[in-house]
């Protein structure tokens, strides 16, 4: 028999915060009320709720539980790279140019000085 999902026992999502887990636990405990209901089914449900809360409230145990219940990653499929017969070689990557050094030239417009006049020649 497979163990029940602890998140489903408390009625929360796997991404629930610690506060949401505590709130859901308290809500379930109020529903079950072990001090007023004394039958075997309720006691067993209360035990499952308590065990789920004990596991999910501790960050270390919760992380271990999440790792355990996560599906195993699928093996990566090999990539087969082939070129059709008669295909040309792939083009070479484009050339990359480094930074460009600009020289300062005369400013266009009225009042622009000639480069020789600016040097005092």
TrEMBL record:
SUPFAM superfamilies: Chaperone J-domain
All residue ranges annotated as the J domain in the record: 5-69
InterPro entries, A to Z: Diphthamide-biosynth_chaperone (IPR052276), DnaJ_domain (IPR001623), J_dom_sf (IPR036869)
Highest taxon of the lineage: Bacteria
Stretches with biased composition (Low complexity): 110-121
Disordered as annotated region, ranges: 62-121
PROSITE patterns registered for this protein in UniProt: DNAJ_2 (PS50076)
PANTHER family xrefs: DNAJ DOMAIN (PROKARYOTIC HEAT SHOCK PROTEIN)-RELATED, J DOMAIN-CONTAINING PROTEIN
Protein name: J domain-containing protein
Lineage: Bacteria, Bacillati, Actinomycetota, Actinomycetes, Kitasatosporales
